[in-house]
Amino acid sequence: MKVGVRGVSVWGPGLAGWAQAQECLQGKTEWVEQEQSPPPASILAPNERRRSGPVTRLAMAVASEACTVAGMETSDLSVVFASANGDGGVIDSILRALSEPGGEVSPTQFHNSVHNAPAGYWTIGHNSIAPATALGCYDWSFGLGLLKAASEAVVEQHPVLFVAYDQPIPGPIGKVRVTKGNFACALLLDPNLSQQAMAQLNLRYVPRSTLPIDMPPHKGLQALAADNPAARSLSLLTCLAQHRAGTVRIACQPGQLEVDVSPC
């Protein structure tokens, strides 16, 4: 199953957008583990912008940049959003409110608690009625989300924007579901291989495999990939940044996703 990558973006500790991240992933600059707040979600009207939470802003940042890099119109673009944790901060806030006298929950908090909130904000911001999917697949959300996005692109023969994102969960839940760092990435996938692209991906789902999954070469980034489900994308992003051909193995329970990368 082949698709072209026409746009890419990443935001995480020491990785503030694709241009800066590319320099780091190429080894031209040193990676420094430093949290950075994503820019405001400029695609949203002021009211929606005020209601949106940090998870939505993180997802919007990479989604918008990937489309800008690709130079593609967004209003009729299908999207797939994938997150293991969703907005854990909102869930923690709601559970705390329910445990207090009165148990009053903010309507805005409840609105943001649903797993498809970032995808919904994206369609609102772009006045889009194109298909929008939100997936939650635990630690395999990146691999299964990428498989879903590529499959839709090939079957429906239209470009698909894929966005993966995860943030730490505060409170008691975060003590048992440990996630470190704020991380998100986006890939604009196009099944039309005649279009100009950064690279071509050939994806194969392997239901049973004993081969280890791939991790980024940098030890600090390996730790980030181990501690944040969306950062499992770093091995693939490193290949794209280095314009390097190779095969990347991504966890995709109950098997693996093998991705052959061919720079264009």
Overall strand count: 9
User: Could you estimate the helical fraction of the residues in percent?
Assistant: 25-40%
Which CATH top level class fits?
A: Alpha Beta
So how many helices?
10
Order of helices and strands: EEHHHEHHHEHEHEEHHEE
Mean pLDDT: 92
What structural class is derived from the secondary structure elements? alpha+beta
For the largest beta-sheet, the strand count, sense and barrel status come to: 9 strands, mixed
From the alpha carbons, calculate the radius of gyration and give it in angstroms.
Answer: 18 Å
> Quick one: CATH superfamily?
Thiolase/Chalcone synthase
Number of domains: 1
Q: What percent of residues are in strands?
A: 15-25%
Topology of helices and strands:
Layout: E1 2-12, E2 15-16, H1 18-25, H2 46-51, H3 54-70, E3 78-82, H4 88-98, H5 107-113, H6 117-125, E4 132-135, H7 141-156, E5 160-166, H8 171-176, E6 183-190, E7 199-206, H9 219-227, H10 234-241, E8 246-252, E9 255-263
Helix pairs in contact: 3-6, 4-5
Region (Disordered): 29-50
Domain Beta-ketoacyl synthase-like N-terminal: 29-202
InterPro entries: Ketoacyl_synth_N, Thiolase-like
How would you sum up this structure, described in words?
This protein has a single domain (2-196), classed as Peroxisomal Thiolase, Chain A, domain 1 (3-Layer(aba) Sandwich), CATH 3.40.47.10. It has ten helices and nine strands. Strands 1, 2, 3, 4, 5, 6, 7, 8 and 9 form a nine-stranded mixed sheet that branches. The chain is α+β, with helices and mostly antiparallel strands.
Compact overview of the structure:
With 264 residues, this protein is of the alpha+beta class. It is 37% helix and 23% strand.
